[in-house]
Design a protein that fits this description.
It contains 13 helices and seven strands. It has about 350 residues and is mainly α. The strands form three sheets. It has a three-stranded antiparallel β-sheet with strand order 5-6-7. Strands 1-2 form a two-stranded antiparallel sheet. A two-stranded antiparallel sheet has the order 3-4. α3 runs parallel beside α13 (about 340-355). The chain is globular, with a radius of gyration of 21 Å.
Length: about 350
């Protein structure tokens, strides 16, 4: 009898320790805290615009890129909290970057009324991706119209130099990057899934084949860019480039049912963890990393292999524990940025769905 009670007592201690080591994480509370911080520290109510950092900035308002992160974070927050309109204020801010200049309307890198600026194809594509996600969730045609306009703008960045592909920047056509072609594929594939217009699928496959031919490195880790006209490869490797191509393979598999795309996605997922997750951490750029998570999440929806997601959960915990200040602003530096807050808001939103 005593031995039975002792065994039961030891079992309860072990279970207690196990539970203490694996607490249930309240991602929604973190999202709410980050959202409050963004609105308190970075949002400017009188203009409806945002600041880039919580310190002194070169310009009064943020460049567009951090808003590309924030609009996706807002979509994830709205998915978890459908009663609150997280996206509307961000879209109103983004509308102040709209530029109607030929050859097609698009969004420029800085607030239009404060001066003319360059237009980056990838900035526009990230907005389209968030709007397409929002359309799939809400069926609001306003989101679809934004994405269709951005598709037309992105295709003005296509030519046959280097055999095809999209440029990165409209006014300096000297590189074609994975960061403009990967999301370009995703925009086209999502539009095809919604409209079934063959043009979109044709574009996606062309961009996919071009990117794989010119920018795919060993084991599916993608290079940054090819320079025009020299065709020299910029061999830098970033998590977000591999992430968009991982997600592209998954979507192509879902659409075509061709197993080669699923096999490529699984190869990329295995390679990316080995290449990027070193010393129990991902690289420091939170937003690049959450774009990689988008690819893994898409793959999980197909193959249900939850083990391959664990390093994202672990890294997100490390960041919350070690890389935030006393007000819960995240970031490795003393100056905190809008893009970092937005990235982690999206990260915790996705992990909440996946946990």
């Amino acid at each position: 009898m005593k031995s039975g009670l002792t065994l039961l007592f030891l079992t309860l201690i072990i279970l207690g320790k196990s539970n203490a080591q694996s607490p249930v994480v309240d991602y929604k509370a973190r999202i709410s805290q980050i959202d409050q911080n963004i609105n308190k520290v970075f949002y400017e109510p009188e203009t409806g615009l945002y600041k880039e950092t919580n310190a002194k900035n070169d310009k009064p308002h943020s460049y567009l890129w951090p808003l590309c992160a924030l609009i996706q974070a807002a979509n994830e927050a709205e998915q978890l909290d459908p009663g609150k309109a997280h996206m509307k204020p961000v879209l109103r801010a983004i509308s102040q970057y709209h530029n109607d200049n030929p050859p097609a309307p698009g969004y420029q890198a800085y607030v239009t009324k404060e001066g003319k600026d360059a237009r980056f194809y990838d900035d526009n594509q990230w907005i389209a991706i968030a709007c397409l996600d929002a359309y799939n969730r809400t069926k609001s045609k306003s989101y679809l119209r934004i994405a269709e306009e951005i598709y037309r703008f992105q295709m003005t960045g296509f030519d046959e130099k280097a055999g095809g592909g999209l440029y990165w920047k409209e006014d300096e056509k000297n590189t074609k990057n994975t960061c403009s072609n990967g999301p370009g594929i995703l925009v086209a594939l999502q539009l095809y899934k919604i409209t079934k217009k063959k043009e979109y699928l044709t574009t996606a496959v062309q961009l996919y084949e071009w990117t794989n031919k010119h920018l795919r490195g060993e084991n599916g880790i993608f290079y940054d860019a090819i320079k025009i006209p020299s065709l020299k490869i910029d061999s830098a490797k970033y998590t977000y480039n591999t992430g968009t191509m991982l997600q592209s393979n998954v979507l192509l598999y879902v659409i075509t049912k061709e197993k080669k795309y699923l096999e490529e996605a699984q190869l990329i997922a295995g390679s990316a963890e080995k290449y990027f997750y070193r010393n129990n951490k991902l690289p420091d750029h939170y937003w690049f990393n959450v774009v990689l998570l988008r690819g893994y999440e898409a793959l999980y929806e197909v193959d249900r292999n939850k083990k391959q997601l664990q390093f994202f959960f672990d890294d997100a915990e490390r960041i919350w524990k070690n890389e935030k200040d006393g007000t819960d602003l995240v970031g490795t530096k003393q100056t905190k940025t809008l893009i970092d807050q937005s990235a982690m808001m999206e990260m915790y939103g996705r992990l909440e769905r996946l946990k």
